[in-house]
Amino acid sequence: MPLPRIPAAAARFVAGLLGLWLILSAGLAGAGVMTRTTLGQIYPPPYSVGEQARELPVWPLSRMNGPYPELEGWLFESIDFAPIPGFSGTPVNLLVEIAPDGQFRDVRVISQHEPVFLDGLGPEPLAAFVRQYVGLGLNRNIKVTSSTNGGVRLDSANAYIDGVSKATASVRIVNDSIVNAALAVARAKLGIGGGSPARAGTIRSEVLDAGLDWAGLKDKGLVACRQYSNREVERAFAGTVGEGQDPEALAAPEALYLEFCATLLNVPGVHAALLGDDAWARIARTLEPGDLVLLAFSRGRYGFAGPDFVRNAIPDRLGLAQGGLPLGLRDMDLDERVRVAGLPDFDTVKFFRVLAQAGLDPARPVELSVRTTRAHGLLYPERVSRDLGLELALPARYVERAPQAPQPLSGWRAVWAERAGELLILLAGFVLLTLLLARPAWLTHDAMRLRRVRTLWLVFTLGFIGWYAQGQLSIVNLTAVIQALRAGRGLDFLLNDPMTVLVWAYTALALVVWGRGTFCGWLCPFGALQELAALGARALGLQPRRVPEALDARLMPVKYAVLALILAAAWFAPALSDRLVEIEPFKTAITLGFVRSLPFVAWALALIALNLVFYKAFCRWLCPLGAALALLGRVRVFAWLPRRAECGSPCQLCRRSCEYGAIRRDGAIRYADCFQCLDCVAIYRDRRRCAPLLLADKRAARGQAPVRFVPRAGGLEAGPS
User: How far is CA 585 from its chain centroid?
Assistant: First the structure.
C-alpha cells in the first residue's frame, strides 16, 4: 500500500536532515605530539630548541645573547604532566614555556576536543584565554573568573584571569592543566614547589631583647650565617666544565670562599642592636605596611654584591625564596648612609627591601642563595653556575603565626562552591518535580491545571536548567566516559560540571522509578524548546501532522542506529565521534544560544521546524541520548501510569491523543517511547472525555447498576517494557 503523500515527504525530509548531519560530520579532529623539529619552526632563530631531557619530557629553549646562548625557558606539553580529561573525555594539550624564574613565557593550544571550542564558539576564544598566562608566574595562585574586565588582575598572592562565557567549566579544566603541568616541571627543573601563604605571620613588636650584641643575636637565632670554603665550592662544581677552573681555590682548599649572613631588621631586638631606635625609625618611615628589610653581610673571596652590582636594583647574585617560590628583593641604597654597629669585619653590608606584595612570611623559613659562576673556554666560554644557600628561620617567640586560613578550594570543589546557589535551585526543582510525578492525581485533576503547570515547568527547564545553568545532558557525556575508560583515565573530570552531574544523578534515579520519560519529557531543555515552540505554533493555528504507525515504526529504530554508530566511534575513532555527536542540536540551541556558524544553526532550526510539523520528530526518531535513556530505562520497576481493562478495548481515545505514538492498540503504554506528558492520565481521570467514565455516568443516570472498572495490573504492564 503506498504511503500517504505527507508522510512520504516527511521521510524525505528526515533523510535530507541525516544527509546534512553526515556532511557536517565529515571532518576529523586532529591531534599531534611536539618534536624538536616542530618546535624549531615555532621558535625560529634567534631561539634554539635543545634536545629533550632524558629524565623529563621537556625541551630547553635558548636565545642568543651576542655570541652566547642564554637559557630562555623550558618547553613542555601539558598532556605529559597533567592529562586532565575535558568534556569529551580527552585532555586538552597545550604547549607551555616557563622561564627559569617560574614565569609563563608562552602558552599555546596544540590540540583540544572540547565540544564548545570545536564548532561552537570556535577555537579563538580558547587561544585568547591561554594568552592571558603570558607574564604570570607560579608565585601567584591563578584563578579563573567569570568577569570580563579585559585584562589580568593581580594582588599579592593571586592572579585573576577572564574566563570564557558559555565555557566556564572547560576553561577551568584548561587552567588546571596548565598550572599543574607547570608546577610539575618547575619542581623538577626549577626547584619550585608549593604556593605563597594565604596569610603571612607577623613579627612580634612587644618582644624586646635589650642589650644584645652580635654574638647574642646569633645565639638567639636572629642572625643566620653560613661559611663556604674553597673546597666546598670546588666540590659543588665537580663533574662540570667548571671543575678545576679556580686556581686559587686549588692552591688553598681550606681558605674562606664566602661567609654569608642575613637577618630581618624588623625584629625589635635586631634593629636595636645593630642600628639603634632612631636610625630604624628613619628607615621605617620609608616602608609600606608589611614591607620587610633584609640586612645581608658577606666577606671572603667572593661576595653577593659583585663589581657589576647596581644600587637601587635587584641584585644579580643574591636570590630570595620561600617554600621554593622565588621572591623579589631590591637594594635600598642605605649602606653608605646608615651605620651598622657591632658587626665583625664584613666586606659587604647591604639593606634590601622585600615588598609586602611578595608574600614573604616571617614566621616561616626563608632561603637565600648566592650564585657563583665559572666559565671554561676563551673564545666561546661555557658557563656553569651554582647557588650557595643559607636558611633564615626566626625563632617562634619572635613571630606570631597567622591563624590557619581556610585553604582556597581548587579544581571541581571550587566550581561546586561557586555554583552553590544554582545547585540549590536545581535541587529544589527536583523536589518539586518528584512531588508532581509522585502525585499525578493532583496534577492531572483537570487538563487546564496540567497544561499550566507543565508549561511553567518547561519554561523553567529551558530558561534556568538550559540557557542559564547549562545543565543540558548530551550524548557527549557518554562518549567522554567511553574515551576516558579507553585511555585508562579516571572519571573525576565529570565533577567539573556540577549541574550536569546533578541532572544525571536525578535522571538515573528517575530511570529506575519512572523510566526515560522523566528526563526527555520534563528535564531536557531542547525538548522543552521544541514543546514551547509547538505550543506557540498551535496558538497561531498550525497543527502538527500525524505519521502513520507503519512509517513511525520504521523511523523509531533510527535513533538506536545513530547511538550505536556514535558509541562505536567513541571507542574506535574518537576524532570521528567528535563530529558525529553534532547530530544533537543541544550545543547550538542551548549551550551557545544559537551563536554559532550557519550550518549548525540551520540544522537546529530545521529540527525545530520539523517539530512544528511532526511533533518531537528529532526526539522520537533521531536523538541518540533518548535512545540511550530508552535502553537504560528498562531497569524501571514501576508501571505507574494508570490503565483500565477498557483501555484499548473498546476505548482508543488515549492512543489517538498520544502525540508520541507511545500507546499500543491494546492500550498498553510503551514506556521506552513515553515522554510522560501525562495527557493520557488527564484523559483517564476526565469524566467528560474518558469513554469508560462516560459510560458509567450514563448508566448511573439511568438508574442502572454502576460499572465496576478493573485496573490493568501495574498500569497495564506488569513489568518493564
Answer: 24
Task: Give the Cα separation of 279 and 341 in Å (integer).
Answer: 11
| SS3 of residue 36 by DSSP | helix
Structure confidence by residue, pLDDT tens digits, 400-416 = 876 654 444 455 776 78
Tell me how far apart the alpha carbons of residues 430 and 432 are, in angstroms, rounded to a whole number: 5
**DSSP one-letter string for 378-436:** SSS-EEEEEEEEEEE---GGGEEPPP-PPPPP-HHHHHHHHTHHHHHHHHHHHHHHHHH
Burial of 335 (0-12, 13-18, 19+ CB in 10 A): middle
Q: Please, where are the H alpha helices in 523-659?
A: 525-539, 549-555, 558-572, 574-580, 586, 598-613, 617-621, 624-632, 653-657
Structural contact between residues 690 and 651, judged by C-beta atoms closer than 8 angstroms: yes
For residue 70, give the 3-state DSSP assignment: strand
Q: Which residue is associated with the grid cell 620609608?
A: 286
Q: Are 302 and 372 in contact (CB under 8 A)?
A: yes
In this predicted model, what pLDDT tens digit does every residue of 57-91 receive, in sequence order? 888 888 866 655 677 888 999 988 878 777 777 78
Q: Which three cell numbers stand for residue 717?
A: 504492564
Distances (CA, A) of 146 to 132, 165, 167, 398, 619: 14, 7, 10, 42, 33
- Tell me, what amino acid is at 258? L
- Please, are residues 223 and 209 in contact by the beta-carbon 8 Å criterion? no
> Could you tell me if 130 and 109 are in contact, meaning their C-beta atoms sit under 8 angstroms apart?
yes
Q: Is 420 exposed, middle or buried (0-12, 13-18, 19+ CB in 10 A)?
A: exposed
Closest by CA to 166, choosing from 106, 87, 84, is: 87
Cα angle value 580/582/587 (rounded, 5°): 150
